[in-house]
Design a protein that fits this description.
4-stranded mixed β-sheet; alpha/beta; binds phenylalanine; 15% strand; 12 helices
Length: 319
């Protein structure tokens, strides 16, 4: 297991615990490093006074409940050793019950179950943020934020993807997942390797990252791409390839910020549910900014984030 802290320029590093299978633990380390950097931009672009971090528990086999508990306890001790410079929450493979286990070892944990005083799963606000980004993107691309009659392909029916699917009643929703058990008869289904190239208006990456690279970009079947998966591009240069194909891609670290925005507003800012949700909805305005700037959407979003990061590095009085 490992914790990556990418930046504390704006405040303590925040980022969830990813627990999943990796062929080699070094792949997990690579993931932690890239995901922690994405958290830095996510927080900065959302104007949160937090930096970027991430924990990865890299599994080489399924864990028994006892081993899972022990792994989380060890991670809790590791987080405690960082003394508040890294704060954690859930991510792929973990949820509120796991946060409660960490909490026994360290106070620096968000998203405990509601009965234990936390705000619970961050999946709902993450999905609300994705939908706000989707509507803003639709306004730019289709001239209307309504998705009625549009075809939306969702790749990944995990905790966020399945919530997004439910909120698109007027659309034709096609879903896919690497786990066939997540097939839901309420929606059309495509095999995971078909999802990206299925002709559609919108493609929603809601699984793990690395979806777009020079080989897959020519195959993309949708005009608008927006979803909660972190690190969707194999490299920053892929953003330009998407532009060249006339595809509007909304930067993942903007679209996926809802969970962090909501949780930090509630648990650190002590805002009400409604006020915190208004902040999540504001992701729509950030998308407007990012899609109307001079560069491509990734450049614009990174500029927005980096401007805040460098401003914070100025000595007090000059900022
Ligand atoms: N998984 C969340 C993300 O990638 C991490 C998170 C959620 C952090 C909630 C803090 C609170 O943004």
């Amino acid at each position: 297991m490992m914790i990556a802290v990418h930046s504390r320029a704006l405040g303590p590093a925040v980022g969830g615990v990813r627990m999943r299978h990796y062929a080699d633990w070094r792949d997990g380390m690579e993931d932690a490093l890239r995901l922690s950097e994405a958290m830095t931009y996510k927080c900065a672009a959302a104007d949160l006074a937090f930096g970027g971090g991430k924990s990865v528990i890299a599994l080489d086999r399924p864990l028994t409940p006892e081993l899972r508990q022990a792994a989380l306890e060890d991670l809790g001790d590791l987080i405690a050793s960082l003394d508040g410079s890294y704060l954690t929450g859930p991510d792929v493979g973990t949820g509120p019950a796991d946060m409660a286990v960490l909490r026994q070892r360290t106070p620096h944990v968000f998203c405990l179950p509601e009965e234990q005083g936390g705000t619970g799963s961050s999946s709902i606000p993450t999905a609300v943020g994705v939908l706000a980004a989707l509507r803003a993107g639709a306004r730019h691309v289709f001239g209307s934020e309504s998705l009625d009659g549009r075809t939306v392909v969702i790749s990944g029916m995990g905790s966020v993807g399945s919530l997004v699917a439910k909120e698109l009643p007027g659309a034709r929703v096609i879903v896919s997942d690497v786990d066939p058990a997540r097939r839901d008869p309420a929606y059309e289904w495509v095999e995971p390797e078909e999802a990206l190239r299925t002709p559609a208006d919108v493609f929603v990456p809601a699984a793990v990252g690395g979806v777009f690279d020079p080989r897959t970009v020519p195959e993309v079947g949708a005009q608008l791409v927006v979803g909660p998966a972190n690190n969707q591009l194999a490299a920053d240069s892929v953003a330009e390839l998407l532009v060249q194909r006339g595809i509007t891609w909304i930067p993942d670290f903007v679209a996926s910020a809802g969970g962090a925005v909501y949780t930090l507003a509630r648990e650190i800012g002590h805002l009400s549910h409604d006020e915190a949700m208004r902040r999540v909805e504001a992701i729509g305005s950030t998308v407007d900014t990012v899609l109307t700037g001079e560069g491509n959407p990734l450049e614009n979003a990174l500029n927005l984030a980096k401007e805040r990061l460098t401003r914070s590095a100025l000595p007090a009085g000059e900022a």
